[in-house]
Amino acid sequence: MIDSSPIAARARRVAGAAARRPGLVLSVLVLLLTMGWVLAPDWFGGQSPTAGVAQQRLEPPSGRHPFGTDQLGRDVYARVVHAAGLSLGTALAATAIASAAGVLLGLAAGYFGRTADVVISRIVDITLSIPSVLLSLLIISALGGGTLHIAVAVAVTSVAGFSRLTRAEVLRIRTAVHVEAAALCGARWWRILARYVAPAVVGPVLGLAALDFGLVVLAVSALSFLGYGPPPPAPEWGALVASGRNYLATAWWLSTLPGLTVGVVVLAANRLSRALETERSRA
Amino acid sequence: MRLVVHGTGKYVVRRLAQAAAVVWAAFTVTFVAIRLLPGDPVALMLSGRNGFSAPTPEQVAETRARLGLDRPLPVQYWDALADALHGDFGSSIQTGRPVSAMISETLPATLQLGAAALVLSLVAGTAVGIAANLVGAPWARQWLRSLPAVGISLPSFWVGLVLLELLSFRWRVFPSFGSTGLTGLVLPACTLALPGAALVAQVLGKSLHDTLLQPYADTLRASGAGAWRLVVGHGLRNAAIPAVTAAGLLVGHLIGGAVVVETVFSRPGLGRITQAAVGEQDLPVVQGAVVVAALAFALVNLAIDLLYPILDPRIHATTRTAGTPA
Question: How near does any CA of chain B get to the CA of A73, in Å?
Answer without folding.
Answer: 21
